[in-house]
């Protein structure tokens, strides 16, 4: 089939690569390739660390997609860091959050190992004294910019959709075209990039006085520190207050932050849906398929989304949990 993919973020590019691999004639259309949320993303492949009560479906989807990442990373020649995630609670109240999350994961049979103060210290000697934590050994991370660069080398990029395209896949993140624009809304994320001679070894997802923060090391001194989360109508910018909150929370966990070079601040909107689940499948308009609304999970869910979109085009199959028509009144 002749397929145009609108949007060259990590979701659109991964969809484009998968469709091309399956023999479709694919063009990816974007005036600013890889410049949206994928440019800001830390690259956490963390289905468990990023899940919360009521999001169990996301855990299932995330675990399935994490399982597809090793093959995708190998195909693209990008590094996949499989060092796990350390959840940490700075004080006793924060540790309760970690313990509730660990209990949720345990109930779903997900591997999680609770650690006391000393256990956290030996897992991550660079961290400050914290109340405790939990290790999620199966989690990983990638550098989304490296992934997008590798994908851009493998897809055909065009400036405009083709008039003779048989199918259009809409993967334009937080700004969907009409009539779907109301299905997603932007949730601002501000994120900082640092360079350190004493980085953590693995992804650290922490609570500090009720404030959520994460550190994602690349293994070469680069560390990504994220992220704020606010619904906003204004254009995304890094605010002084956002940076201050991130730095203060991260410093409480990781004292070496003081000596780190502050390299970059980035802000982008995450594409949120009403029920927190992506929109992958029929759009309600013939020949148009959505691959959108991935909110906090675009990098993690990209390979699963690519597989689902390609399966849908090849066989007509739709995952009912992700079917976009669930959010459109009267569209089924
Ligand atoms: N998945 C990380 C974030 O959205 O901040």
TrEMBL record:
<dbReference type="GO" id="GO:0005737">
    <property type="term" value="C:cytoplasm"/>
</dbReference>
<protein>
    <submittedName>
        <fullName>Glycine oxidase</fullName>
        <ecNumber>1.4.3.19</ecNumber>
    </submittedName>
</protein>
<dbReference type="InterPro" id="IPR006076">
    <property type="entry name" value="FAD-dep_OxRdtase"/>
</dbReference>
<dbReference type="InterPro" id="IPR036188">
    <property type="entry name" value="FAD/NAD-bd_sf"/>
</dbReference>
<dbReference type="Pfam" id="PF01266">
    <property type="entry name" value="DAO"/>
</dbReference>
<feature type="domain" description="FAD dependent oxidoreductase">
    <location>
        <begin position="165"/>
        <end position="311"/>
    </location>
</feature>
<feature type="domain" description="FAD dependent oxidoreductase">
    <location>
        <begin position="5"/>
        <end position="160"/>
    </location>
</feature>
<dbReference type="GO" id="GO:0043799">
    <property type="term" value="F:glycine oxidase activity"/>
</dbReference>
<keyword id="KW-0560">Oxidoreductase</keyword>
């Amino acid at each position: 089939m002749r397929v145009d993919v609108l949007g060259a973020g990590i979701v659109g590019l991964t969809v484009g690569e998968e469709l091309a691999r399956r023999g479709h004639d694919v063009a990816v259309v974007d005036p600013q390739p890889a410049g949206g949320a994928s440019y800001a993303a830390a690259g956490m492949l963390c289905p468990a660390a990023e899940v919360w009560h009521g999001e169990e479906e996301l855990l299932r989807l995330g675990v399935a997609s994490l399982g597809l990442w090793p093959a995708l990373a190998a195909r693209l020649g990008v590094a996949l860091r499989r060092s796990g995630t350390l959840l940490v609670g700075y004080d006793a109240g924060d540790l309760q959050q970690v313990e509730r999350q660990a209990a949720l994961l345990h109930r779903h049979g997900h591997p999680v190992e609770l650690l006391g103060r000393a256990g956290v210290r030996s897992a991550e000697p660079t961290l400050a004294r914290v109340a405790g934590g939990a290790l999620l050994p199966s989690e990983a991370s990638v550098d989304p910019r490296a992934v997008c660069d590798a994908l851009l080398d493998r897809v055909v990029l065009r400036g405009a959709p083709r008039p003779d395209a048989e199918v259009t896949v809409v993967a334009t993140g937080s700004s969907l075209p009409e009539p779907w624009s109301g299905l997603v809304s932007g949730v601002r994320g501000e994120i900082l990039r640092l360079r350190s001679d004493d980085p953590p070894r693995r992804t650290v997802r922490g609570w500090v006085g009720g404030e959520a923060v994460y550190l994602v090391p690349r293994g070469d001194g680069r560390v990504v520190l994220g992220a704020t989360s606010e619904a906003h109508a204004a254009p995304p910018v890094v605010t002084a207050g956002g940076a201050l909150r991130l730095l203060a929370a991260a410093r409480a966990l990781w004292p070496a932050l003081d000596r780190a070079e502050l390299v970059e601040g980035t802000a982008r909107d995450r594409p949120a849906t009403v029920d927190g689940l992506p929109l992958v499948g029929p759009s309600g308009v013939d020949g148009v398929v959505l691959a959108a609304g991935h909110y906090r999970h675009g990098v993690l869910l990209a390979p699963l989304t690519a597989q689902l979109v390609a399966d849908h085009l090849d066989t007509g199959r739709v995952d009912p949990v992700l079917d976009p028509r669930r959010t459109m009144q009267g569209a089924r």
